[in-house]
Amino acid sequence: MQITNDWRERLARSYLPFATWITVALVAIVTGALFPLTGQTGAYMVLIAFLCASPAMISARLTIALSRFVRTSLQLLVLSAGCGFVTVIGFAAAYLLCIVVGSWNPAETAPTDVAQSAKAGIVSRVFQGSLFFLISAAAGGLASSTSAGLWLYREWRLRQGRGAAKVATGNALPATDAGIGDGRMHRGRRAASDMRFFWCTTACGPMIVALMLGLFLNSLSGPSMPVAPEQVLWLALNVYYGGSFAAAVAAALMLTLVYDRGRRSAWLAALCVGLHAGAMLLVLFVPASTDGEAGAIVFPMLLGGLVGALSAAICTAFWFPDRRGLVPSDVTAEAGMNGWALVRPLIVAGFIAPLAAALAYGLFVGLVPSAGTSPDSTFIGRLRSFDPWTWAIAYRVWAVVALQALVLRHLLPMAHVPTSLAMGITVVLAFLFSGGVGHSLDDYVMSGSTVVSFSSFLEFALPGLVAALAALYFIDLERPRRAVEAGNVAA
Known about the structure:
Elements: H1 5-38, H2 43-51, H3 53-65, H4 73-102, H5 116-159, H6 165-168, H7 173-178, H8 183-220, H9 229-257, H10 263-283, H11 298-319, H12 328-334, H13 340-367, H14 379-384, H15 388-414, H16 419-437, H17 454-476, H18 478-490
C-alpha cells in the first residue's frame, strides 16, 4: 500500500480507537477460550480485557506518533509490534518497581551469610520473572501487530471503492474546523480547558475518593467490625498522598490519549487509565509490611486501582474538555497542556521540590545543635536521627505539598483571586498542611500520637514551605521564555 500524507491523516484519526477496541476484543476472546480449560471463568475474563485497554491506547498512540518514519505497510506492522512490546514491558516494570518500593523496609536486616540454596532460589525467581515479562511483552506485540494488520485490511477494502473511501478520508475535518471560530481565540480556550481539567483533577480527585472511603469505612464501624478513627484517617491520608500524583498522571494520560470525544464518551477510557495509575502510584505511599512480604501489597494495589478508576471517571464527567472533531495532530500543535508541559509539574513536584526541602532540613539539623540532639521515637525524632524510612515518608509529604502548591497556583487565578492574595493563601496552606501532617504520622501507622508542640510543628512545616516555594519558583522559570517565544511568533 502506498504511504501518503492522506493515509497518515486517516491513521491519526481512526487508528487509536480501532486498535484499542480490537485489542480488548482479542484479549476477551482469548481469555474466554483459555480460562474454561483452566477452570477459571467469570470476572477474570472481564478484568483482564479491562486492564489491557490502557496499554492498547498507549501503544496505538506511540504508533501514530512514530508513523512519520513509516514508508510501507509492512513497516507499520513492525512498528506497531515494537510499540506493543515496549508498552507492556514498561507497564510490567512500573508495577514491579512499585511493589519493590512498597515492600521496602530498611529496618529489616538481612543475614550476611546467605545459603547457596537461597541464592539459587533468588536467581530462579529472577529468571522466572524475566521470562514472564518477555512472554507478556510478546503477547502485547502480537496483539498490537494484529490490530494494525486488521486496520490495514480495512484500509485496503475501503480503497477498492464501494463508496466508503470518502467516509474514511476525513473530508469533514475542514467543515468542523470552520465552525470552531477564530483560530487563536479557540486555541486559547482549548488550552484553558485542558489546564482546568488537569489541575481540577489533581486537586479534587483524591479528595472525592478519600471522602467516599471515609464515609464507607465509618458505616462499617460497629460492634461486629470495629474500625478505629486512626485507621480511617491513616487510610484517607494514604489515598490522598498517592491519589494526588495518581490523579495528575491519569489526567495527563487522558489529555494525551483521548481525542474526538466529549465528556459523555470519555469516562470509559478514564476508568481504564485511572485503574493503572491508582494501582501503581498508591502503592508507593503505603508503608512497608511488618513481615516484609510483597504479598501484603496486593490489597493496597487493588484498592488503589479501584479508587483511581473511580476518581478518574468522576473527574472526567465533571471537567473533561469537549474534544469532538480533534485529532492527535491538532492536540500536538494547538493544546497548551501536552508533552513536556504535562510532565514538567510532576517532575518539579515529585523530585526537585522535595529534594530542596530535604536539603533544607538536613542543613537545619546539621547547623542548629539543638535540632539534632536527643532524638526520640516520635516521627520528628526519627527524622532528626535520619531514619531512612521516616525520611522516605517525609519526602512523600513534601512532594504532595509541592504538588498542591502548584494546584493552588493555577486554580486560584482561575477563580479571579488576586495574585498577591493567592500567593499568601498558598504559602499559609502549605505551611499548615506540612506541619499538621508531621503530627499525624507517628510510628508509621499512627499507633500513637505525637505530642503537639510549636517547635516540632515548625520543624516539619518549614521544609514543607521550602518545597512549595521551590515548586512555584521552578515552574515560573519557563514563563519569561514562553513570553519571548510568543512575542517572536506574533512579530
